[in-house]
Every structure is written in structure tokens, then in C-alpha cells.
Amino acid sequence: MSDLPEPSGHPELLVAEPLVRTEIKIGYARVSTGGQKLERQIDALTAAGCRKIFSDKKSGKTDLRPELKACHAFLDAGDTLVVPSLDRYGRSLQDLINMVAALRDRGIGFTSLHENLDTTTPGGRLVFHVFAALAEFIRELIVQGTREGLAAARARGRVGGRPTVATEEVIKAARDLLPNPGRSITSIAKLLGVSAGTLYNHIPDLRELRAVPRQLDATER
User: Fold this and answer.
1) Is 32 a catalytic residue?
2) Which residue in 2, 8, 32, 92 is the catalytic one?
3) How does pLDDT run along the chain (221 residues), one tens digit per residue?
4) Global pTM?
5) Domains of the chain, each with CATH number or no CATH
6) Which residues of 158-169 are buried (b: 16+ CB within 10 A; e: fewer)?
7) How many CB atoms lie within 10 A of CB 125?
């Protein structure tokens, strides 16, 4: 048994896949601007044997990806979701880990063609286990760096280290921490030296970021 840290609330990524598989592959493609073309991604997914393909023309940084939600809702236990590459699916490493873990919890496989990753194989599950450990390590570095920054601010006489306006670095750190279900918005704000209201004011999609983890409900699948 590996001693690598497991994301809170996520299923063990190294356990065996469900015994019954439908062999049905469903594809998802995405381009981030209207000027980009989907054809190459769709051709790759078709060649991979996808029976149905969903596609979005949205930035990965926004949650407004209706076709992804429709794709998640369409998938059944035993199916496999296929994407052209990891960056076409997840907005960040943590987002990717959360969604793949949620798929596994539903008995759904995941394959990324460009990276040749397949969670229906032991090797693919091992890679995602390492990804999960890396995501946890990055979160710990963010927390450690923030604490050190606050300590330095206090030493310079800034009580609490709280900035009057949230900086770009604070907002980025908050966006990285918000998908973690183990931390409340209030605790994240306190850690970063700002108020919860500041996070709400500076992160328009805050509620969507909080809804990403663990498992996907009917509107998110």
C-alpha cells in the first residue's frame, strides 16, 4: 500500500476497476476561443472509438461549460470518458483530480489520448495517484508560503498582515484552495489575511469553485 497522501474525500485511485464494463466510450472536446477549430479533437476522439462526442467552445477557467455537464450526465457506470488531452478537461491539476475521482466513484473510466493515460489500467491509476499527491503537496506549499508571508507582515508592523485590497497573489492562492472541501471559505480568508467578503467580491465564480469537489450532482455531470 502506497503511503502517498490521498485527496480528502476521494476514493483510492489504485483499487481495481469495476468488473463490469460497457466498453462504451464517450468523448469530450473543448476549444477556448471561437476562432479555434474542434475538428482535429473530434477526429481524434472518433478514431479512438467514441460513440458520442460532446464539445464546448469555452475557456477552461470558467464553469460555463454546458456540454461538459451534459457529458457527465450522459455517462453511465462502466462507460469511459475520453478527452484529447488533460488541459481540454480540467481547469487546474486539482480540478482534474477532483473530476476524475468523481468519475471513478461512479464506476466510470477516464482516458486522455495525448498523455496516453487510462484509469482502466494499473499504470494510469498510478499516474493519477501521483497527481493527487502532487496536488496535495502544492496546496501545502501555498499554505506554508502564505503563513510565512503573514508572519513577515506582522514583523513589519502590519497587524494581522491583512492587505487593504486583495492582491493578485492572494486571489490566486484563494482559487487554488477553494476547491478543497476540507477548508471553509472563512478559514481560507483568515489564512490569506483577508475577509470572506473580500473573496466573494474578487472571485465571481467562488460558489462554482466550491461546488467542484467530491462528486458531481445531476447538474454538474
Assistant:
1) yes
2) 32
3) 333 334 444 445 445 555 467 789 999 999 876 667 889 999 999 999 999 999 998 765 556 789 999 999 999 999 999 999 988 898 877 788 888 888 888 889 999 999 888 988 888 788 877 777 766 666 666 666 666 666 666 666 554 444 445 788 788 888 888 887 778 888 888 888 788 888 888 888 888 887 654 444 443 43
4) 0.57
5) 25-128 (3.40.50.1390), 134-211 (no CATH)
6) eeebbeeebeee
7) 23
